[in-house]
Amino acid sequence: MFYGAMKLSVGGALKLAFRPWVEGLENVPAEGPAILASNHLSFSDSFFLPAMLDRKVTFIAKQEYFTTPGVKGKLTAAFFKGVGQLPVDRSGGRGASEAAIKSGIEVLERGELFGIYPEGTRSPDGRLYRGKPGGLARVALATGAPVIPVAMIDTEKIQPPGKVVPKLMRPGIRIGKPLDFSRYHGMDNDRFILRSVTDEVMYEIMKLSGQEYVDIYATVAKRQIAEAEAARKREAKSGDDEGDGKSGDKAGT
């Protein structure tokens, strides 16, 4: 009941304010388990997609969203629970990954929809990055649930980093045809199969989204971008220091 009320209020507000468009709704089954595998451009992806579906979609969310103290923290936790998010501590390496996989399997065994971002994190620059095989493929092969590729369109433009007030514009959602991986049943410990399944899903997402594909993990790209930015700042500071030194020398002659 709480989920329905929250979805009605939040989903209704999102539809009214942003008027998102959607293609391929007929590819989401009216009942039974299925995995929605989506690209990840924005924090808002987990809200726009469920808002456009009649069925509940459960995503994995960072534990911090549920444990932050204070009034704001409690409101945030209530909101995430209300829209069907599951808290998972993602800081614990393999243990955290296993917890996420277990949660996904439980959702699907209840005959529900499970949402997952194969990239593992938001894209740092709007491009599509290599999918991580541990979560998506293992859940799919363990349950036999079909994988439905999803492309979020322009959600990153609504509230870019550093912007407090979201921009009112129309994001989009493209939902592809279900992918059947039942031919790999029982092979969820074969890393080559896991890689193959993940790459097939990412290829379908790329076709739906039109994004440029980058064959590295988004976490690596984020680190490279951060390192490049840090190097740029060091160079800029070094240039400023040299300029100050030259000015001082000139003033002393």
From TrEMBL:
One example GO MF annotation: 1-acylglycerol-3-phosphate O-acyltransferase activity
Quote the cellular component terms of the Gene Ontology held in the record: plasma membrane
Any stretches that span the bilayer, and where are they?
Answer: none
Q: Quick one: where's region Disordered?
A: 228-253
Q: Which Pfam families match?
A: Acyltransferase (PF01553)
InterPro entries attached to this UniProt entry: Plipid/glycerol_acylTrfase
Q: Which SMART domains match?
A: PlsC
Show where the Phospholipid/glycerol acyltransferase domain sits.
Answer: 34-155
Q: Which UniProt keywords apply?
A: Acyltransferase, Transferase
Which biological processes are named by the entry's GO terms? Answer: phosphatidic acid biosynthetic process
Has UniProt tagged this entry with the keyword Transmembrane? no
The name on file for this protein is Phospholipid/glycerol acyltransferase
